[in-house]
Amino acid sequence: MAKVKSPEDLSIDELQQLMVEKRRKIRMRHLEQFRNTGRVVNLTSDQGNTSLENLHSTSLTDHNLDEKLPWYKRAGRALDRIFLVIEILAVAGLLFIIYSGVKILRNLNNEFTQSLIPATLTPTPLINAIVLPSGHTPPNSSQGAQPNDAEIPAHLLPLYHSMAQLPIPTPAPEQAVRIQIPAINVDAPVVQGDSWEQLKKGVAQHLETADPGQIGNLVLSAHDDIYGEIFRHLDQLQRGDDVIIYTATRSFTYVIANVQVVAPTDVEVMANTPDPTVTLISCYPYMVDNQRIVVRANLQTGNE
Q1: Which residues pair with 217 in a beta bridge?
Q2: Could you read off the pLDDT of 6-58 as tens digits, one per residue?
Q3: Interaxial angle between packed helices 52-66 and 12-36, expressed in degrees from 0 to 180 and rounded to the nearest 10
Q4: CA distance 206 to 279
Q5: How many Cβ atoms are within 10 Å of 16's Cβ, its own excluded?
Q6: Strand 186-192 and strand 242-246: pairing?
Q7: For the CA atoms of the chain, what is the radius of gyration?
Q8: Rounded distance, CA 134 to CA 200, Å?
Q9: Are the C-beta atoms of residues 170 and 161 closer than 8 Å to each other?
């Protein structure tokens, strides 16, 4: 009979074999009890010997099952994962809020910077005139026809006379050279500048006003009772009458829109306009010459 070894004398493999055998016997005893009570059926795999490797694998699987966490710990781990997802979403939301805040702050800074830039204002058109052109004393007055300095405020007389000395620009193809007003039989040359000497030559264009056909106000003036009385009958013009202005290359037809009588100092009628217009000016009434008659016409067509 083989001598029974004490546990201290057994090798590791032998101890492992004993553990496997003991577990197998316990499992078989449990299975036998289950069979006896009818709770299990016989399985082929339950009979016969099991190899050491299979039993060892089974023992490891049982060992892993023994180490499984209880339900409340598994639930805790699931909650941890949920909280982790929530934290990630919270961080993402915080980053988005920071990005939006930076963007809003940048826009506010840009708006503030723009508010510091002075607004571009449309300048009021300058009127380089003190009184309306063509003013003179009546030819039947004691001193005869001459420039009427009485119309000009005394403190502006030096400026008025200096403006009369402005140089005449070099003729250009786009400048007015002739005017026709069929309704009152006007057909006269147009000269540049409306000084006293220029008005002796015909209809005078105020310097730096628009040329025919261009956007702006073309200001023309002539006498009513001296030097040909070219504009004597402006008061007979009516809405719809034509004014034809010629350049060296083409003609432009304007249609009269209104006729009015104003004071000599109402120089606003010479201001620039957003559309092509012509303004005709002369002294009024005939042989009195203490007011001005102003005719405004708008461009209708341009013909070659």
Answers
A1: 277
A2: 666 667 777 778 788 888 888 788 777 767 766 555 554 444 454 555 545 55
A3: 80
A4: 10
A5: 15
A6: unpaired
A7: 56
A8: 10
A9: no
